[in-house]
Amino acid sequence: MSLKNLFMNGKKTKSKLFCGSFLLFVKGGSFYIPQTKKEGMNMNELQYYEKIKDWDFSQINYLSESYTNWELYDELKKVVTKDSKVLDLGTGGGEKLLEFFPECQEILGTDYSPEMIKTANKNLKKSGRKNITFKTMDNLKMTTLENYYDVVVARHTVIDANQIYKTLKKGGHLLLRGVDKLDCWSLKLLYGYGQCFNDEKPISQIDYEAILSAGFKKVELIPIHIKEYFITKEDLIALLIKTPILTDFSETKNNSNLSNGILDLSLLEKYIKENTTEKGILLIRRYYGIMATK
Ligand SMILES: C[S@@+](CC[C@H](N)C(=O)[O-])C[C@H]1O[C@@H](n2cnc3c(N)ncnc32)[C@H](O)[C@@H]1O
């Protein structure tokens, strides 16, 4: 199954160049990003996230303009009450959960990467928030109780709609946000590959159909259009190092550009030349939201 989800929040503050958990090498017209291929083997999604260890983008300097009037956390606040039990699937380092989930009876954040859960527990300690726990769990082999949660959130992660249906109470809500096939499309076109590049059906449609066939009611699919402006070339490269925009976990074809995880910097220079605006280097993002009720 291909990875479909990544995200950042618009920040208008100045910050230093991000080098993250990966060293950034810009040498001889190419740069290295984490790739699925390592020593001839396919590195899987789990290894990828185990290396990244968090989902914190606060050091990348960029502006974000949304052209869609739909916000996951506004919707979350509408359905959560003080008595709610909430589950966040693929929580990463719990960054978004700790910042945006409202107080309620119980919140569980899960992720299949033990490194992410380690980070989430560190972040929890710093936050001082109560009624929150984190644990490792595969979204595709959920071990949570049946008919237990009032709300399930899945943001930029893989899902199994049937398993989410089971763990929700009757009348419970699913709130999902994903990265769609056409995200950063002109950049992917230039490189000739990337996240979901070869998917026949957009992932938004796959999720929408799966959620309907799991038995959910009031299912709404919302396309999300966002323009992001990266202040410097280094900010854009930091994004490409941290996220799998130019990676495709479902990619099985041998692509010489992708082996060794080396990307051609001259292509990026061309993209930057064609997409530099007064506000920064433009990247057009395509996400989607899904709301559904059991
Ligand atoms: C792009 S990050 C999103 C993190 C967080 N939801 C957010 O929006 O900031 C995707 C997360 O999903 C997790 N993930 C991917 N596949 C998973 C699976 N099958 N089961 C559980 N977690 C998974 C990854 O480890 C990673 O932490």
Description:
The chain has 294 residues and is α/β, with parallel strands linked by helices. The chain has one domain (57-261, 275-293): Vaccinia Virus protein VP39 (Rossmann fold). The protein is 28% helix and 28% strand. The protein contains 9 helices and 14 strands. The protein has helices spanning 45-52, 72-79, 95-100, 114-127, 161-167, 185-191, 203-213, 233-242, 265-275, and strands spanning 26-27, 30-32, 37-38, 41-42, 62-66, 85-89, 106-111, 132-136, 149-155, 168-179, 217-230, 262-264, 276-277, 280-293. The strands form 3 sheets. Strands 5, 6, 7, 8, 9, 10, 11, 13 and 14 form a 9-stranded mixed sheet that branches. The two termini are 25 Å apart. Mean pLDDT is 84; it is low at 1-28, 34-43 and 251-260. Bound molecules: S-adenosylmethionine. Residues 5-7, 45, 49, 55, 90-92, 95-96, 111-113, 116, 138-140, 155-158 line the site of S-adenosylmethionine.
Question: Main traits of this protein?
Answer:
9 helices, three-stranded antiparallel β-sheet, binds S-adenosylmethionine, alpha/beta, 294 residues
How does the SSE layout of this entry go?
Layout: E1 26-27, E2 30-32, E3 37-38, E4 41-42, H1 45-52, E5 62-66, H2 72-79, E6 85-89, H3 95-100, E7 106-111, H4 114-127, E8 132-136, E9 149-155, H5 161-167, E10 168-179, H6 185-191, H7 203-213, E11 217-230, H8 233-242, E12 262-264, H9 265-275, E13 276-277, E14 280-293
Parallel strand pairs: 6-7, 6-9, 7-8, 9-10
Antiparallel strand pairs: 1-2, 2-12, 3-4, 5-11, 10-14, 11-14, 13-14
Bound molecules: S-adenosylmethionine.
